[in-house]
């Protein structure tokens, strides 16, 4: 009777050769066939394990790569302007702003589509040639040209507003597993609540530079909201936003709608 050998990964077929030679020819043939089958099965098992390990590593790499696109710190740099019909108001082309959002991305299964939700701060700075005044009896806001009203020439007039915002977006990526090498498209909507506003005017009076600053502009609409658009490649995109709400509250100032366009870094 042959005693079973303990399992040892270091045992080689050559070690079994003397034992097999001492067996009858019939047993030798059967033993060789069994050893060949066992050896082949072992090789196939090792190959399967290696393939499974490689697949798991690839899956982990893909998951890590996808998660890089899940939580993003988004920066928008944009030019701003107003749509209005105010004769005494001219908005400068270099009016500008910036948005800072923390965005979380939720993929739709294994498709190229996803949905994102975020929160952050949106700021707008409108440079212009006028000043906001208010009617004595109604307190309705209106704009009047600074240089036509005051003898002291102004150097810079700015209206600054800051909103706490929540952006929502439906997204498409051509390569979801490789966001840094993907063509990206997004359509969304964002809403914001006004948390700060101020006027700032720099002017000269009797040869002396002076600054007038008013914090908390009256009659402003506390909400801004509207559609967004985004298109880009990798970490850079172009985007646009149109404010469906008006700058002033209804019947408390002239009708003004704002819009902006610029670039986004690490947006999608």
Polypeptide structure, described:
This protein has 2 domains: about 45 residues; about 200 residues, Beta Barrel (Porin). About 20% of the residues lie in helices and about 50% in strands. It is built from 3 helices and 11 strands. The strands form 2 sheets. The protein has an 8-stranded antiparallel β-barrel with strand order 1-2-3-6-7-9-10-11. Strands 4-5 form a two-stranded antiparallel sheet. Strand 9 and strand 10 form a beta hairpin. It is rod-shaped, with a radius of gyration of 35 Å. About 0% of the residues have low confidence.
Q: What is the class of the largest domain in the CATH system?
A: Mainly Beta
CATH architecture of the largest domain: Beta Barrel
Count of domain modules: 2
Shape: rod-shaped
Strand order of the largest sheet: 1-2-3-6-7-9-10-11
Mean pLDDT: 82
DSSP summary: helix tally: 3
Work out the radius of gyration. 35 Å
Largest sheet: 8 strands, antiparallel, barrel
**Structural class per helix/strand content?**
alpha+beta
What gap, in angstroms, lies between the N and C termini? Answer: 71 Å
Question: Are there runs of 5+ residues with pLDDT below 50, and where?
Answer: 7-11
Tell me roughly what share of residues is in helical segments: 10-25%
Compressed to H and E, one letter per element, the order equals HHEEEEEHEEEEEE
Oligomer: single chain
Proportion of residues in β-strands: over 45%
E-strand count: 11
A few lines on this structure:
The chain has three helices and eleven strands.
